Amino acid sequence: MKKSLFIILVLTVNIAFAQQIVTGVISDKTNRPIESVKVSVKNTALKTFTDAAGKYSIEVPETYSTLEFTKENYKDQVVEITNNVINITMSLITDVDLFELSLDELMNIEVITASKKPQNQKIAPATIYVVTEKDIIEKGYYDLTSLLENIPGVVPIRTDHFTFGGQRGFLSNFSQTLLLVNGREMQNLFASETFISTQFATHNIKQVEILQGPASALYGANALVGVINIITKNDSSDFNKTEYHTEIGTQGTQSQSIVFGKNFADFRISGSFRYFRSNLWDYKDFIKDTVNFRQAVPTKAFPVNQEFKKRSWSLPYAAKISYKGFYVGIEGYELQGSKGLENISLDYTNQSDFRELALYYAGVEKNITAKLKINSEIQFYKERFWGVNYTFDNVIYDTMVKNGHNPEFPLTEQEIKDNFMMAYSQQSSSGSKRYKGNVQLDYEPSQTLSIIGGYTFDEFDLLGLALSTERLNPSFDETRSIENSMRKPFFRQYKNSLFLQLQKTLFDKLYVTLGGRFDYHNIYKSIFTFRSGLVYTPFQKTSIRFLFGQAFREPNIFELGASSVNNVINELNPAKMNTFELGINQSFTSNLIANVVAYRNTATNFIEPTETGGFVNSGKIINVFGVESQLFYKTGKIRTEISYSYVRKDADEYAGVSTVNLGVYPHRITGGLTYNITEDFTVNSRINYYSEIKAKHGNKDINEILTIPSFSKVDLTFSYTKIKVYDVEITTQLFVTNMFNSQFYQPNIRIGGPKQFLQHGRQLFCNVIVKF
């Protein structure tokens, strides 16, 4: 049954200083007030929210006369305000009935990552895929990696330490992708990697926006092939509640989470905390596989009863306080893992990895005038990490044999500890730091013109690693010197950046975007990036995009020579890429929508290792052509979507053979079917298909190309929402991953020792969400 909410507007208009003061009360048909309805002046940044009594008050500039009323799970409504309005009673917002909404209404999503301002996804000047909180509930996404599995053009590869992979044919450890949380960078500091592990769960996610293609003109370095922007619930001013999540699952998985936000007139406090622990998947049989895992490694060197114990826990946290445009906050995590399958180890039980990353920020966001808004923010990051490896090394083993070890006997525990233990640590250090300051101006002189510009100062003060074969917590030397591998001079880097973007609407059908960014780095000097976009809507249900963008990735400290025994500083330039895109979004009917995009990436200056252990800029031009497509269909209680990605990467010369798409899946298909058994009970099934792939052998000593067979993985999710118990709303989820317990492999694209990576078998999880 459709539920209706009636908005009773008592509008009092006072004209003073060219402002109209509009007040009102919003309540439902039982006269209960509706809290946290966003009331905004259309085409401005002016907004307010109803209080616990359903009341609001907002100043409307004389030249504007339209108010918008929005609230999660309800249809938006627009009201025209005139000076003679005294009292209006009307049905303004209707509760969302998923059975009756068309796909157009369901997919009418607002994004911010494409232009650093809110805009409709259909006219955004970027290829951008959106996953909402509703998608997360229905499809059983429990962490960021499971979410990315279903995004066209994205390939995540689980190692049960952190996720390898990438976007649009550039696969490594997501080091070509920029990871943001609420628009703020959350890369690790040490190597500017997108380190995705269990710390990025979905309990606090309102929306994830995955931008495909270069984005350096807006976001600077490392947004080479795309951006992942996590928008959290607690950071959203319309989140005015408390949620408690509890999860249990196979492999001893359990978590407890709380997310809260509370508005007190102009004051707001919010936060999120989660504790997660799991043994993850047990690969004890796979690590002994001398064909599929540790090929060409002396079998007899390994302990006969070798165990695989993978324990992981994480503690992500966030908190924010705001008052009248001023705010302070923190975003961070603590994380412990056991290295997973990343390397071939002689001791999987005792190796470990600990990480701490915290971002502290403070800023102000103010409307200088009705047309001009400023945001100024300072940020401070701090990071430390440490751990221990027991990685097998053929050179060390051969030396031991020469010195008398009998190769017919496995290594003893003491021999493993004395010869193969390697501790790496910043534990006794002050930690790496990053200092960043941003100023952004948003100017909208008219409803058809938007100008955004800003300045950023960014300084890294990084630390290397103390290494030891004897102590788990070696001492740390923070003396800055070229001879000190932990504190070399070039670890401190800084840059200044300016960016400007103009967006213009022509004839109500043509949306033009032009933008550019200038970065000056103390090492790499000047670099300029440019973007342009043309979005044409010739018909109401048709949107055509023409896009061009540039991007760059800066060398990390390893590539600069941080680990060089000769204290060499490599002379490197940033890697660069240009991308052209053509896309079309077409609604054939209200229940059938298609989206297709074709792109071409051209990358230069890619940084690659040499045989002597250094790094150089490759003189090779890398071309990648690809197509991403989506089809959405809805009929009655059934919704379905299917996505197909095609990638063709230039041939690589390896093992005496020229191979196209080496290390890149040429075909990827994802599909999903959602059935609403009732308004609140949903079943979702998903399938992921990976085509056959040609890849390098993961052991760098084996010059061979592997053929990894194609495979499919099926997941199933049951979700039951809006269970009412007094004033509490409960959501329950049951999801099964790899339902048929299929066995399949993915490539070791970082060539870290293992031939390939086995993916986990069937897993079962149950999640309960309680909303207060």
TrEMBL record:
Molecular-function GO term, any one: siderophore uptake transmembrane transporter activity
Domain TonB-dependent receptor-like beta-barrel as annotated: residue spans: 369-738
InterPro entries attached to this UniProt entry: Beta-barrel_TonB, Beta-barrel_TonB_sf, CarboxyPept-like_regulatory, Plug_dom, Plug_dom_sf, TonB-dep_rcpt-like
Membrane topology category: Multi-pass membrane protein
PROSITE patterns on file: TONB_DEPENDENT_REC_3
Subcellular compartments: Cell outer membrane
Keywords: Cell outer membrane, Membrane, Receptor, Signal, TonB box, Transmembrane, Transmembrane beta strand, Transport
UniProt keyword annotation of tRNA processing present: no
GO biological process: siderophore transmembrane transport
Family indicated by similarity: Belongs to the TonB-dependent receptor family.
Protein name (database record): TonB-dependent receptor
Source organism of the structure: Flavobacterium sp. WC2409
